[in-house]
Specification:
By secondary structure, the chain is α+β, with helices and mostly antiparallel strands. Helices cover 35% and strands 25% of the residues. Strand 2 and strand 3 form a beta hairpin.
Length: 240
Protein backbone atom coordinates (compact mmCIF):
# COMPACT_ATOMS: atom_id res chain seq x y z
CA UNK A 1 0.00 0.00 0.00
CA UNK A 2 2.78 2.45 0.89
CA UNK A 3 4.71 1.64 -2.30
CA UNK A 4 1.68 2.54 -4.38
CA UNK A 5 0.78 5.57 -2.27
CA UNK A 6 4.22 7.04 -2.94
CA UNK A 7 3.62 6.83 -6.70
CA UNK A 8 6.25 4.15 -7.27
CA UNK A 9 3.95 2.05 -9.46
CA UNK A 10 2.98 4.51 -12.15
CA UNK A 11 4.64 7.90 -11.80
CA UNK A 12 7.37 7.03 -14.31
CA UNK A 13 4.61 6.53 -16.90
CA UNK A 14 1.97 8.97 -15.65
CA UNK A 15 4.27 12.00 -15.39
CA UNK A 16 7.26 13.54 -17.13
CA UNK A 17 8.77 14.89 -13.92
CA UNK A 18 12.57 15.14 -14.10
CA UNK A 19 14.26 12.64 -11.82
CA UNK A 20 11.27 10.30 -11.66
CA UNK A 21 13.39 7.24 -12.52
CA UNK A 22 15.89 8.13 -9.79
CA UNK A 23 13.00 8.51 -7.35
CA UNK A 24 11.69 5.09 -8.40
CA UNK A 25 15.11 3.52 -7.88
CA UNK A 26 15.49 5.12 -4.44
CA UNK A 27 12.01 4.04 -3.35
CA UNK A 28 12.56 0.51 -4.63
CA UNK A 29 15.93 0.34 -2.85
CA UNK A 30 14.42 1.37 0.48
CA UNK A 31 11.26 -0.73 0.17
CA UNK A 32 13.05 -3.95 -0.73
CA UNK A 33 15.26 -3.77 2.37
CA UNK A 34 12.11 -4.02 4.49
CA UNK A 35 9.80 -6.28 2.43
CA UNK A 36 11.04 -7.88 -0.77
CA UNK A 37 8.02 -10.09 -1.42
CA UNK A 38 5.70 -7.30 -2.52
CA UNK A 39 8.22 -5.93 -4.99
CA UNK A 40 7.45 -8.59 -7.62
CA UNK A 41 3.75 -7.74 -8.22
CA UNK A 42 4.58 -4.04 -7.95
CA UNK A 43 7.26 -4.37 -10.62
CA UNK A 44 5.09 -6.45 -12.96
CA UNK A 45 2.27 -3.91 -12.67
CA UNK A 46 4.63 -1.03 -13.40
CA UNK A 47 6.11 -2.88 -16.40
CA UNK A 48 2.70 -3.72 -17.85
CA UNK A 49 1.76 -0.05 -18.30
CA UNK A 50 3.95 0.85 -21.32
CA UNK A 51 3.10 -2.45 -23.02
CA UNK A 52 -0.66 -2.02 -22.57
CA UNK A 53 -0.44 1.64 -23.56
CA UNK A 54 0.48 0.53 -27.09
CA UNK A 55 -3.10 -0.76 -27.40
CA UNK A 56 -5.30 2.25 -26.50
CA UNK A 57 -8.66 0.48 -26.72
CA UNK A 58 -7.49 -1.95 -24.04
CA UNK A 59 -5.55 0.52 -21.90
CA UNK A 60 -7.95 3.48 -21.86
CA UNK A 61 -10.55 1.93 -19.49
CA UNK A 62 -7.72 0.81 -17.17
CA UNK A 63 -5.57 3.93 -17.24
CA UNK A 64 -6.87 5.53 -14.03
CA UNK A 65 -6.70 2.19 -12.20
CA UNK A 66 -3.01 1.83 -13.08
CA UNK A 67 -2.21 5.43 -12.19
CA UNK A 68 -4.15 5.37 -8.92
CA UNK A 69 -2.25 5.80 -5.65
CA UNK A 70 -4.92 3.90 -3.72
CA UNK A 71 -4.25 0.29 -2.77
CA UNK A 72 -7.25 -2.01 -3.23
CA UNK A 73 -6.65 -5.57 -1.94
CA UNK A 74 -10.23 -6.76 -2.54
CA UNK A 75 -11.09 -9.62 -4.89
CA UNK A 76 -13.68 -8.15 -7.26
CA UNK A 77 -14.13 -7.36 -10.99
CA UNK A 78 -11.94 -4.69 -12.58
CA UNK A 79 -14.87 -2.32 -13.08
CA UNK A 80 -15.36 -2.18 -9.30
CA UNK A 81 -11.72 -1.52 -8.37
CA UNK A 82 -9.98 1.85 -8.00
CA UNK A 83 -6.58 0.26 -8.64
CA UNK A 84 -5.27 -3.02 -10.01
CA UNK A 85 -2.29 -5.38 -9.87
CA UNK A 86 -0.93 -7.35 -12.82
CA UNK A 87 1.03 -10.61 -12.93
CA UNK A 88 2.62 -12.76 -15.64
CA UNK A 89 2.03 -16.32 -16.87
CA UNK A 90 4.60 -17.63 -19.34
CA UNK A 91 6.49 -20.72 -18.17
CA UNK A 92 5.28 -24.24 -18.98
CA UNK A 93 6.60 -27.67 -17.96
CA UNK A 94 7.89 -28.75 -21.33
CA UNK A 95 9.54 -25.46 -22.27
CA UNK A 96 10.93 -23.74 -19.19
CA UNK A 97 12.69 -20.61 -20.39
CA UNK A 98 12.20 -21.64 -24.04
CA UNK A 99 8.90 -19.82 -24.51
CA UNK A 100 8.66 -20.86 -28.17
CA UNK A 101 7.56 -24.29 -26.95
CA UNK A 102 4.35 -22.95 -25.40
CA UNK A 103 1.47 -25.42 -25.74
CA UNK A 104 -1.35 -23.41 -24.13
CA UNK A 105 -3.77 -22.50 -26.93
CA UNK A 106 -5.98 -19.49 -27.59
CA UNK A 107 -9.01 -19.70 -29.88
CA UNK A 108 -10.65 -16.55 -31.21
CA UNK A 109 -14.35 -16.16 -30.43
CA UNK A 110 -17.09 -14.45 -32.44
CA UNK A 111 -16.86 -11.26 -30.34
CA UNK A 112 -13.11 -10.90 -30.86
CA UNK A 113 -12.12 -12.26 -27.45
CA UNK A 114 -10.16 -15.50 -27.05
CA UNK A 115 -10.67 -18.70 -25.08
CA UNK A 116 -7.40 -19.83 -23.47
CA UNK A 117 -6.88 -23.50 -22.63
CA UNK A 118 -3.77 -25.09 -21.16
CA UNK A 119 -1.35 -25.01 -18.26
CA UNK A 120 1.28 -22.76 -16.69
CA UNK A 121 4.04 -24.12 -14.49
CA UNK A 122 4.67 -20.65 -13.06
CA UNK A 123 1.83 -18.15 -12.77
CA UNK A 124 3.31 -15.24 -10.84
CA UNK A 125 1.35 -13.45 -8.11
CA UNK A 126 -1.94 -15.34 -8.59
CA UNK A 127 -3.70 -12.78 -6.38
CA UNK A 128 -3.31 -10.20 -9.17
CA UNK A 129 -6.38 -8.73 -10.87
CA UNK A 130 -5.11 -9.72 -14.32
CA UNK A 131 -2.17 -11.46 -15.95
CA UNK A 132 -0.27 -11.17 -19.19
CA UNK A 133 -0.30 -14.72 -20.53
CA UNK A 134 1.45 -16.41 -23.42
CA UNK A 135 -0.64 -18.79 -25.56
CA UNK A 136 -0.40 -20.22 -29.05
CA UNK A 137 -2.63 -19.26 -31.97
CA UNK A 138 -2.27 -20.42 -35.56
CA UNK A 139 0.22 -17.58 -36.06
CA UNK A 140 2.38 -18.68 -33.13
CA UNK A 141 2.97 -17.59 -29.52
CA UNK A 142 0.78 -14.57 -28.72
CA UNK A 143 0.35 -12.37 -25.65
CA UNK A 144 -3.04 -12.04 -23.94
CA UNK A 145 -4.63 -9.91 -21.24
CA UNK A 146 -6.37 -12.39 -18.95
CA UNK A 147 -8.32 -10.83 -16.03
CA UNK A 148 -9.46 -12.58 -12.86
CA UNK A 149 -13.10 -11.85 -13.79
CA UNK A 150 -14.81 -11.89 -17.20
CA UNK A 151 -16.66 -8.77 -18.45
CA UNK A 152 -20.00 -10.17 -17.23
CA UNK A 153 -18.65 -10.36 -13.66
CA UNK A 154 -18.10 -14.13 -13.52
CA UNK A 155 -14.91 -15.66 -12.16
CA UNK A 156 -12.61 -16.46 -15.06
CA UNK A 157 -11.83 -20.10 -15.80
CA UNK A 158 -8.41 -20.21 -14.13
CA UNK A 159 -7.88 -23.08 -11.70
CA UNK A 160 -5.02 -22.75 -9.21
CA UNK A 161 -3.55 -26.24 -8.86
CA UNK A 162 -1.11 -25.36 -6.09
CA UNK A 163 1.15 -22.66 -4.68
CA UNK A 164 4.82 -23.36 -5.36
CA UNK A 165 7.07 -24.35 -2.46
CA UNK A 166 9.84 -21.89 -3.25
CA UNK A 167 13.30 -21.33 -1.84
CA UNK A 168 13.35 -17.69 -0.76
CA UNK A 169 10.77 -14.97 -1.47
CA UNK A 170 8.10 -17.10 0.14
CA UNK A 171 5.87 -14.13 0.93
CA UNK A 172 5.32 -13.61 -2.81
CA UNK A 173 3.09 -16.40 -4.09
CA UNK A 174 3.77 -18.24 -7.34
CA UNK A 175 1.32 -20.84 -8.55
CA UNK A 176 0.74 -23.65 -11.01
CA UNK A 177 -2.54 -23.17 -12.88
CA UNK A 178 -4.78 -24.59 -15.58
CA UNK A 179 -6.93 -22.58 -18.01
CA UNK A 180 -10.26 -24.08 -18.98
CA UNK A 181 -11.40 -21.84 -21.81
CA UNK A 182 -10.47 -18.69 -19.88
CA UNK A 183 -11.64 -15.36 -21.32
CA UNK A 184 -8.85 -13.17 -22.68
CA UNK A 185 -8.08 -10.25 -24.98
CA UNK A 186 -5.17 -10.29 -27.41
CA UNK A 187 -2.34 -7.88 -26.62
CA UNK A 188 -0.21 -7.04 -29.62
CA UNK A 189 -0.05 -8.90 -32.92
CA UNK A 190 -0.66 -12.62 -33.28
CA UNK A 191 2.57 -14.58 -33.29
CA UNK A 192 4.47 -11.70 -31.62
CA UNK A 193 3.76 -12.61 -28.00
CA UNK A 194 7.36 -13.28 -27.01
CA UNK A 195 8.64 -9.85 -28.15
CA UNK A 196 5.68 -8.26 -26.33
CA UNK A 197 6.51 -10.02 -23.07
CA UNK A 198 10.25 -9.42 -23.50
CA UNK A 199 9.48 -5.70 -23.71
CA UNK A 200 7.56 -5.97 -20.44
CA UNK A 201 10.40 -7.97 -18.86
CA UNK A 202 12.86 -5.32 -19.99
CA UNK A 203 11.07 -2.74 -17.86
CA UNK A 204 11.46 -5.01 -14.82
CA UNK A 205 15.25 -5.23 -15.07
CA UNK A 206 15.96 -1.98 -13.23
CA UNK A 207 13.92 -3.14 -10.25
CA UNK A 208 15.64 -6.54 -10.37
CA UNK A 209 19.06 -4.88 -10.10
CA UNK A 210 17.98 -2.35 -7.45
CA UNK A 211 16.17 -5.07 -5.49
CA UNK A 212 19.26 -7.29 -5.51
CA UNK A 213 21.41 -4.42 -4.25
CA UNK A 214 18.82 -3.75 -1.54
CA UNK A 215 18.88 -7.37 -0.39
CA UNK A 216 22.67 -7.27 -0.22
CA UNK A 217 22.55 -4.14 1.92
CA UNK A 218 19.86 -5.60 4.19
CA UNK A 219 21.98 -8.72 4.71
CA UNK A 220 25.07 -6.64 5.43
CA UNK A 221 23.22 -4.47 7.96
CA UNK A 222 21.92 -7.54 9.79
CA UNK A 223 25.37 -9.12 9.85
CA UNK A 224 26.93 -5.87 11.10
CA UNK A 225 24.32 -5.58 13.84
CA UNK A 226 25.02 -9.14 14.94
CA UNK A 227 28.77 -8.54 14.95
CA UNK A 228 28.37 -5.43 17.11
CA UNK A 229 26.07 -7.17 19.62
CA UNK A 230 27.54 -10.67 19.94
CA UNK A 231 30.53 -11.27 22.18
CA UNK A 232 33.01 -14.13 22.05
CA UNK A 233 36.46 -14.53 23.61
CA UNK A 234 35.96 -11.42 25.69
CA UNK A 235 35.13 -8.92 22.94
CA UNK A 236 32.38 -8.09 20.46
CA UNK A 237 32.89 -9.78 17.10
CA UNK A 238 33.16 -6.38 15.38
CA UNK A 239 36.19 -5.62 17.54
CA UNK A 240 37.97 -8.73 16.31
Amino acid sequence: AMYRRQGLIADVSATDTPGRWSALAAGCYLHCQVEAGSLCPATMTQAAIPVLARQPELFAPLRDKFFSREHDPLDRPLTEKPSIWVGMGMTEKQGGSDLRRVQTTATEQADGSYAVTGHKWFFSAPTSDAHLVLARTEAGPTCFWLPRYTPDGARNAVQVMRLKDKLGNRSNASSEVEFHGAWARRLGDEGRGIPTLIEMAGYTRLNCVIGSAALLRAGFVQALHNARERSAFGRHLAEQ
